Amino acid sequence: MLSYFSRVWAARYFWIHLSLADLRSRWRRSFFGMTWSIIQPLGLTLLLTLVFSRLFNTDIVTYAPYILSGIIVWEYISANTVAGSLSFVQADAYIKQCNHPLAIYTLRTVVGSAIVLMLASISLYGWVAVVLPQNIGWSWLASFTIFPILALIAWPVSTLLSYVSTRFRDIPHALGLVMQSLWFVSPVYFEAKMFQNGGLHALVDYNPIYHLLQLIRAPLLQGQWPTWQNYAFSIGTAIFFGALAIIIGSKAERKVIFYL
Amino acid sequence: MKNNRILLENVNLHYASVAYKERSLKSLMASVFSRKKTASNVADIHALKNISVEIKSGERVGLLGHNGAGKSTFLKTVAGLYPVSSGLLKVEGQVRSLFDLSLGFEPDATGRENILYRGLLLGLSPRFMREKADEIVAFAGLGEFIDYPIKTYSAGMQVRLAFAISTTVGGDILLLDEVIGAGDANFMAKAKERITSLIEQAEILVLATHDFGALRSICNRGLVFHHGDLVFDGPCDEAVAEYKVINGLD
Question: Which among A14, A96, A170 is the nearest to B121, CB-wise?
Fold first, then answer.
C-alpha cells in the first residue's frame, strides 16, 4: 500500500499537469477567465438570498454568507461525486497506455476542484470580513482545515465511485439523484435550526455534511471554533471512506482496464 | 552493461467476459430474476496461452501474427497494463511504451509544449524535459512546425514527434505497437539509426509490426503468435517464413 502511494507521488507532475490543463480548458477563451469561479457563486448567492431571506424571514447580512459557503462547498462535493465518478472512463486513453496508479485520475478532479473552491472562498472571506468584522479572530485559522479534510474525503469517495461506475455505467446517472436528495436533507442552503425546529435533529447531528460545513461556518459566521464533534465526524468520514477505498481498490484496481 | 530483462513463465491472460456482457445494473438484475441462461455465449477470451519467453538486455524482438493473435496483448502485459491470470511475469528495467500516438498530446498546444506534457505523462520532471527539449526538437526535424499547435500536424508528423520524445527520454525497455511505419522514408532511416543506438546502450526493444522490411532490418529475434499461442521463437528470417506458412501466405 505504501508503494502505491509512492507511485502516486512519483507521478505527481503528471496529475498536477492534468488538473491545471482541466482548469485551463475550463477558462479558455472566456473574458473573465478564472474570475468566473468567483462571480458564479456570488451571483447565485445574491439571487437565493433575496428569495430565501423573504421566505424565511432571516437576516440578509448573515444569511448571504451562509448560502455562499453552502454553494461553494456543495459545488466541490458534487464535482467530486457526480463528475468524479467518471474519472476513469474519461482517462481511459491514459489508463490503456500508462501503468500509473488509477487514484491519480481522481486526484486530478480533487486538485482541480480544490483550486476552484479556494478561489471561490476568497469572496466568502472578503464578504464576511466586510459585513461581520466582529467575527475576525484566531478561530479563522480553523476554517482553513476544511480544505485538506474535504480533499481527504473527496479523494477516496470519488475513487470508490469511479471503480463502481466503470463497471456499472448507470451509477453516474443515479448519483445525480442521490446527491440531490442528500442536498435536500442537509443544511446546505437551509439553516440547521430549521431542521432542528422541525424535529429533524438527526439530519443535522449525524450528518457529516453539516459537520464539514461547520468547519468553515463556525469561525466565519459565528466567530467560534468548530466543536470537537465537527472534527470527529469529518475526520471519521475521511477514515471510513479511505479504508473502504483501499479495501475495494486492492481488488478492483487491476481489473478496471477490462471495463474501459 | 545493465541487467534488464523480461521474463514470462507460463503466462496466461484472460479477458473477463463479464466486461462485455452485463454492462448495466438492468441487465444484471434481469439475469438474476429471469433465471434464464442468457442467449449470448460470449466466453472469456484466452488472449495469451501459456507463454514462456525470456528477453535479455540488447535484444531487438519483433512480434508477428495475424490481427488478434495476441501481439498487442503481449506488449500491454509486459507494460504492466493487464493483470496476468496465471504464471510469472518479471520485468526488470524502466518500461517506455508507444501504443497510442495521439495520447498525451493536447491538440491546442504547440509541439514544443506537448514535448513537456508527454514527458510528464511518462512520469518525468519538468526540469528534465526542458533539458531534453532541444534534443527532441532536433531529432523530430519538424522545422518551424514545432511552434505550431499539434492539431495542424499530419499523422506522420505526430508519429515523428512521439517517437522522438519516447526514444530521447530513455528508459530501458521500449515497446512499440505498429507505429513506426507511419513516418516517411527519411525519418525511417533516422528511426532505425536511433533504435540501433538504443541497442548499443544495452536496451530492449519489442516491436509489433506487419512490415517485414522494418522487422528484418531492426530486429534480431522474431516471435510469431497465432491465436494466443507463441508458435515460433527464433531468428527474424525464419520467423517471417514461419508466419507466412501458418497464415497460408505465398
Answer: A14
Cβ of A10 within 8 Å of Cβ of B123? The answer is yes
Nearest to A99 among B23, B81, B103 (CB): B81
Q: Which of B246, B222, B244 is nearest to B53 (CA)?
A: B222
Q: Structurally, how many domains does chain B consist of?
A: 1
Are B97 and B79 spatial neighbours (Cβ–Cβ below 8 Å)? yes
Contact A13 B16 (CB under 8 A): no
A119 touches chain B (CB under 8 A): no
Instruction: List, in sequence order, every residue forming a beta bridge with B110; answer none if it has no partner.
Output: B149
pLDDT digits (tens, 9 = 90+) for B124-180: 888 888 888 888 888 888 888 888 888 888 888 888 888 888 778 777 888 887 765
Residues of A in contact with B23 (CB under 8 A): 168-169
CATH of the domain at B171: 3.40.50.300
In angstroms, the CA A162 to CA A241 distance is 13
d(CA A41, CA A155): 23
Q: Which of B29, B122, B124 to mutate to test the interface with A (most CBs of A within 10 A)?
A: B122
Is A24 exposed, middle or buried, given 0-12, 13-18 or 19+ CB atoms closer than 10 A? middle
Q: Which residues of B touch A10 (CB under 8 A)?
A: 123
List the domain range (segments joined by +) for residue B57: 5-246
| CB-CB under 8 Å, A17 with B81 | no
CA distance A211 to A227: 9
Closest chain B CA to residue A104: B121
pTM of the model: 0.83
From A161's Cα to the closest Cα of chain B, the distance in A is: 15
Residues of B in contact with A97 (CB under 8 A): 81, 97, 99-100, 103-104
Give the chain B residue whose CA is nearest to the CA of A11: B123
Cα distances from A57 to residues A12, A53, B228, in angstroms, run: 49, 5, 72
**pLDDT tens track, chain A, 260 positions:** 788 999 899 888 889 988 988 888 888 778 888 888 888 888 888 888 888 888 878 788 788 889 899 999 999 999 899 988 999 988 888 888 888 899 999 999 999 999 999 999 998 998 888 888 888 888 888 899 999 999 999 999 999 999 999 888 888 889 989 999 999 888 888 888 888 888 888 888 888 999 999 999 999 988 889 999 999 999 999 999 999 999 999 888 888 888 87
